[in-house]
Amino acid sequence: MLRSAFPSRRRVRAILRVALLSSDVVALFLATVAASLIRFHRVFHINASPVLPISFNMIDLSFVMVGVWLIALWMEGLYDLSRVFWGTGEYSRVIRALSVGVIGVIIIEYALRAVAVSRAWTLLGWAFGCVFVIAGRALVRAGMAAQRRRGRLLRPTLIVGYNAEAVDILSAFRRNPGSGLMPVAFLANSNSEKLHFSQAQEAGIPCWGSAREIRSVLDEHYADTVLLVSSAFDHDVLARIIAELRDRDIDIQLSSGLFDVTTSRILIREQAGIPLITIRSVSFAPWKRAVKRTFDLVVGALIVLVGTPLWLAFALAIKIDSRGPVFYRQERVGRAGAPFGMFKFRSMYQDADERLAGLQASGANEATGPLFKMEDDPRVTRMGKWLRKYSIDEFPQLINVLLGNMSLVGPRPPLPSETALYTDSHWRRMEVIPGMTGLWQVSGRSRLTFEEMVRLDLFYIENWSVSFDIGLLLRTIPAVLFARGAY
After folding, report:
1. What is the phi/psi pair of residue 278, to 5°?
2. Which of 102, 133, 291, 379 is the most exposed place for a label (fewest CB within 10 A)?
3. Residue 251 in contact with residue 258, Cβ under 8 Å?
């Protein structure tokens, strides 16, 4: 592997830092300008000192505020690239840093007693700053992910250890090239397994040797990240590998094996000199269910009210396109196996259910497990293909949300014929109320296999929170608009 084929680790880090710093500076300055426009109706507002015979322009104070906020962001570790891209945890740290910055400025103001800063301006600047900085960092993350999907700014990664967990890790990186880690090779667990691995080539990437040879391998080949598969080795072997790499300018990452747990639930604490991984429990407390239900009712009702004219237009188009009712009510399975009738706009011909058995017998099914999917299903009407492409046929499920059969976010509600083939692990996805959208919707929809869908649903259940629901709803919008994975 040639070093020239990839940018250096330092260059990638420098690009990220510059992008983050530039985004934060622009976001914070715009926040203070927006605060001035709302509070004073102009940007260049002159403010007089209550003590000294001087005046100052609010734009000058903006530069001071931006400088203080940048220091607070730096002290919070938001330019430490080993910690910066931690999802929602990053956003809470942004809010905390900007809050500390505002408090610092207020304390300085009261200590000097020479400057009177509008409290409304300060509060508006803080609020806009939180929103703009978070939005800017989200754009930086999206831009980096887009560059990496195009094969740029990738980190050549050597996976040390080969087992089922290693295969899952490789599959995850291949599905998400935006992560930036590009596996270039494996190291087998031992010399005895190296020959078997080299012959089998099960993973589709080369084997550069065994874990015992890691130093010589890195001398010969280029990788700037080493990922150790923890379940492939005993503790003493992992400790030896880490010790051998301590003098290398290389990132060492250790897999946790916790594929179904988000980092927001994981804490690393030292107890008696031993680093322990603490996993917070998932709370399904009644008050949280009440908050989720209230959120479903308020947002669901608003969408119904705003979208009523569109509903009428879609209903007319369906009636004109083919004979039959506008709505289709299908039996689905809800929480704890309770059946309910799910509403959809009719997207198929009236005899669709009768034709299903013939299609199944002909081997036309393109899905895996108990699901039935066809990209060019002959039962779908012309209007139905368009409705399905943009998930418009699912809008009437808002009726189910208001009735309490479904939630805005949750696992996909299965058919009774599907649940008849479920295993005990599959039934775990029915522990919560099914939803109109979910991780399966924003992660591929019809392109997903059944087992991948189950894994995503279990991940959602294990990591459920109201903020997680809001995030998934926001991610659903581009997934639907761009019709990703829909048919």
Report:
1. -100, 130
2. 291
3. no
Determine the pLDDT at residue 199: 44
Secondary structure E strands in 405-467: 407-409, 435-437
Q: Angle at CA 460, nearest 5°, toward 458 and 461? A: 65
Evaluated on CA atoms 344, 346, 350, 354, the torsion sign reads negative
> How high is the mean pLDDT in each 10-residue block of the chain (487 residues)?
65 86 94 89 63 60 88 89 65 88 78 65 90 90 84 86 83 79 85 55 75 89 88 85 85 76 62 65 71 90 88 89 87 92 88 70 62 71 84 90 93 88 86 88 70 82 78 78 55
Cα first-last separation, the chain:
40
Domains of the chain from N-terminus onward:
3-149 (no CATH), 155-257 (3.40.50.1980), 286-481 (no CATH)
User: How much is the CA Rg of the chain, to the nearest whole Å?
Assistant: 27
What 3-state DSSP class applies to 113? Answer: coil
Alpha helix positions (H), 233-341: 235-244, 286-321
